[in-house]
Amino acid sequence: MNTKISHHIYGWLLVMPAVILMGTFTHLPSVTTLISSFFSNETKKRPSIFIGAENYEYMFEDPVFVEAVMNNLWYSLGTIIPSIILAIIMALFVNSKLPGKTLVRMAYFTPTILPMIAVSNLWLFFYTPDIGLLDQIGALFGLESHNWLGDTNTVLACIIVITIWKEAGFFMIFYLAALQNISPDLKEAAALEGSSKLYFFRRITFPLLMPITLFILINATLNSFKLVDHLFILTKGGPNNASNLILYYIYEVAFSFFDFSYAATITIFLLVILAIISLAQFVFFDKRIHYR
Questions:
Q1: CB atoms near residue 156 (< 10 Å)
Q2: Domain range spanning residue 227?
Q3: What is the model's pTM?
Q4: Contact indicator for 224, 245 with CB cutoff of 8 Å
Q5: 268 CB contacts (<8 Å, ≥6 apart)?
Q6: What are phi and psi of 39, to 5 degrees?
């Protein structure tokens, strides 16, 4: 009995640093944020008071918040699936017998390690009217100059392209590692049966990639709600909130309008949405995952 107790205490001592860090920097801030969402914003002349669900009622009536949510939904749809598809294609390409594939892998992965601020300034050169690379290429074909980041019809698509370009190489690494762990015997057996490459991918390769696909899908979903560094450099959420996303709006409310209680309310909404999406993905993909 004493040995079991000592092992139990020893186990808790091993995980204690992680528990303290998680509690201090994840769970405790979440609880304090939830509590703050039920109070009014504190100022020098007006103390914070309990107001119940008034912040949540105002949130759903806030037109800027509603637009930020819709923008984020389109942003997520435009980045998650294309990034995963492109990552699979790149992984299959660099996993084949390709001359100089090490350099190709490095080229695919390079955007991932670049700081987001540097990436934003790089793409700003592409999107700048008249002198930008896109307009320079368009001028060769007689096309007029276009303000890509200043047009409400194109600004969100421009942000989506940047995100796909940066994230696909990161997801490719995981798919490449998963592809290299698939037994070559399966490919040889399929070749003996006369299976085409497309049939082998659809029936063998992709089902075996489902565990890593679930991992990537959850990460891509989380990133689509938090990867907004480039908005500070490129658009500031404009024009007319056309590129405003939820996390950037939280930043604006908290540090531009100094309404910390309302910012806490939107944060709780974001946490709940992300939790629901993650749980739904686990439930939906659970029966479609083939573990080995």
A1: 19
A2: 62-286
A3: 0.88
A4: no
A5: 33, 34, 37
A6: -120, 155
pLDDT in tens, 210-222: 889 988 998 899 8
The verdict on residue 46 lying in a domain is no
Q: How many domains does the chain have?
A: 1
Domain containing 209 — which CATH number? 1.10.3720.10
Tokens 């024009």: give the residue: 239
Sign of the Cα torsion 107, 113, 118, 123 reads positive
Report long-range pairs for 186-190 (Cβ below 8 Å, ≥24 apart).
Answer: none
Q: How confident is the model at residue 245, as a pLDDT?
A: 94
